# Entry
Amino acid sequence: MSTRTALRICTLCEATCGLELEIEGERVVRVRGDQQDVLSGGYLCPKGTAIGDLHHDPDRLRKPLVKRNGVHEEVEWDEAFRVVEEGLGAVHEAGGRDAVAVYLGNPNVHNLSGGLYIRPLLRALGTKNQFSASTVDQMPRHVASGLMFGSPTAFAVPDLDRTDYLLMLGANPLESNGSLLTAPDMPGRLRDLRKRGGRLVVVDPRRTRTAERADEHLAILPGTDAHFLLAIARVLYEEELVDVGRLAEHCAELDAIRGVLEPFTLDAVSARCGVPAETITRIARELAAAPRAAVYGRIGTNTVSFGTLNAWAVDLLNLLTGNLDRVGGAMFPLPPHSGPRPEQAKPGRGFQLGRWKSRVSGHPEALSEFPVAALAEEIETEGEGQVRALVTVAGNPVLSTPDSERLDRALGTLDFMVSVDLYLNETTRHADVILPTPSPLERPYYSLAFSGAMVRNSARYSPAVFETDMPREGEILARLALIAGGQGADASPESVDALLLDGLLGGVAEATGRDLDELRSAVAGAGKRPPEVRLLDGLLRAGAYGDGFGERAEGLSVEALERAPHGIDFGPLEPSIPGLLRTKSGRIEVLPGPIAEDLPRLVADLERSPAEGFVLVSRRDLRSNNSWMHNLPKLVSGADRCTLHVHPEDAAELGLSEGTRARVASRVGDVEVPVEITDAVRRGVVCLPHGWGHDLPGVRLGVASAHAGVNTNRLTDGAVLDPLSGNAALNGIPVEVSAA
Ligand SMILES: Nc1nc2c(c(=O)[nH]1)N[C@H]1C(S)=C(S)[C@@H](COP(=O)(O)OP(=O)(O)OC[C@H]3O[C@@H](n4cnc5c(=O)[nH]c(N)nc54)[C@H](O)[C@@H]3O)O[C@H]1N2
Ligand SMILES: Nc1nc2c(c(=O)[nH]1)N[C@H]1C(S)=C(S)[C@@H](COP(=O)(O)OP(=O)(O)OC[C@H]3O[C@@H](n4cnc5c(=O)[nH]c(N)nc54)[C@H](O)[C@@H]3O)O[C@H]1N2
Ligand code: SF4
Ligand SMILES: [Mo]
# Structure
């Protein structure tokens, strides 16, 4: 049998580790970290070692399925697309464009096809009913960045390898491997921070593995991070420690900040968030005194009802301490596929929110999306514009989104549903048609999404490891776009490829005065590569480090990346303001209008006494990845991980002991789950992981069904949202806990 090795970037989480696969015949027999990868240097986690198991998983779908008489049957591709054409066509005809909703799940951002072909699909669908995993995740970050910098994808990433002080809130990278912070080997990088004398402070209601390795852990009450951060800011003003530095001349409304901080006194905030006043003062002084410091907030601060205020407060503190856009502070990556950064701000139209509203509850759109928490009501509520069909791409909202039992019921009432997915799972079991896509190892890799969150500017590309006769995901999405646009199931997907490439090159031709045909033949020179790779080539060559289509021989292109299989490092992050700014004013909007209007809600919350009873928070663990990797034996072996964490004293009061079952009930639902007693959670807080609950009928998940666990999102409440971003509050959910 032939043996070979292949290099490949792992697409299973945001760390994007370089892997070295050993392949015998058609099987992956061993996975190691690629020691020479420019970003990950050999690091990998247990999920990465299971990437071959995912590829070989017998339950992973290889042929389209069509549901007939309640049963999913394999069909040929052309037939599947014809059923989609009929199904979508009928709903469009009866109910118009908005009657077809779309839900985009998380793996789209780990996939080059998703990054390139979702846009034409959305355009062709022409529906206002767009939903995605972003509103159970990072939408508050987009909104805050949009309002402050004019660009919703401007993420200030902690300059991890050069900072002296990291204040981390609501993130647990020892389990998650980092998020909106692409820095493979978080354990090593955090260890190095402390080795060089730096300090790590973790703010989390739980003593997580990350907190255990920190210099200090502050067990804050869920949902009170903005209070805490603004109290720190107030101390900075009181003690005259504010020093915005170089950015002062690029700020608008900076003078207004001190006034809005007035209510966030040490007494009020410490009583509300459970962090002592002296500690808040000390952290403020430490942040100001550290030569280089960064504040970083992630999902625990995003998936709460003050999500956007939290995200704003994080960047505000970075700004007030002079650490925003400074080496060793919080800096903005420069993705290789985006254009070079100008020297000066490009004042634009600014970022707009709420340009239209959802039909039933009037939720404002954010980034053209409505909150996924509102998807069920849009399906259930009759009237003009009612959602009667759904397209899902790489999503499992039945497990991932709040009040999921209700959504599960609602999906069962649709007239038509089509899912582009690898599995027949809790969500896709409702689909009339499931269109399976090639496995991660059967497609080329480049990260469009995470290049914008990397701790070093870099580019890595890997070609497909295995060939497949399945259509590419880009082709599937293109065919769906053609169907949605009325061109029918038989239209050629190549027309979509051509449209995308011409759109890209047309822009370059216009900006540079180059001849379009010359540019076309330059990327055609990217050879027989798949269309998404030709598109990528166009983007990279026009991008910040690009070869300018032959103008700079040593510049970046797909070919250059093929010659550098371990990736190309463009160095540490560099200051980017003012060139990054796209606000109307061309300045950093330090106190954007919508933020100022939302602040009274936070002030009112200060007066609230901490909740009686229990609140529920979420957790992740290293061998899990949201809802969809529990079908791999390696990742579900050993003790049950879907357990309720309860503090020992709370457990004693409730009469719960280790291994017994507890009943957890919220306003919307209840679950029964085994108890794990641990003082890692603070009193009054209980914790469940998300992504479990694989015991629903009709799924094809042999392994996961046998390790079903319970779905924590049967408890999370779709009615509690961050009003600015529409993000669901998945943490701090009031619950009752009792012995089952
Ligand atoms: N192993 C693994 N890795 C993953 C994933 C996975 O499912 N498993 N998912 C991936 C995805 S999609 C994402 S978005 C990232 C997320 O990556 P992270 O943002 O690091 O997410 P978590 O590990 O869930 O850590 C969130 C922490 O917030 C805490 N928390 C809850 N409520 C609050 C609060 O109100 N305030 C504060 N300060 N903390 C709070 C929780 O206790 C938890 O420890 O991980 C990615 N990586
Ligand atoms: N309570 C609670 N709920 C949470 C969270 C939490 O912390 N607590 N975290 C939230 C977060 S951060 C996120 S990102 C969401 C995730 O929410 P979703 O994106 O809805 O869910 P995933 O579990 O990521 O499901 C991914 C789906 O995509 C399929 N898939 C995998 N790879 C591919 C691919 O390459 N192509 C296609 N077409 N399909 C693919 C899988 O089979 C699966 O059906 O969950 C959220 N839900
Ligand atoms: S940390 Fe694990 S899952 Fe994430 S990219 Fe690396 S190997 Fe893959
Ligand atoms: Mo996420």
About this structure: The radius of gyration is 25 Å. The chain has a mean pLDDT of 96.
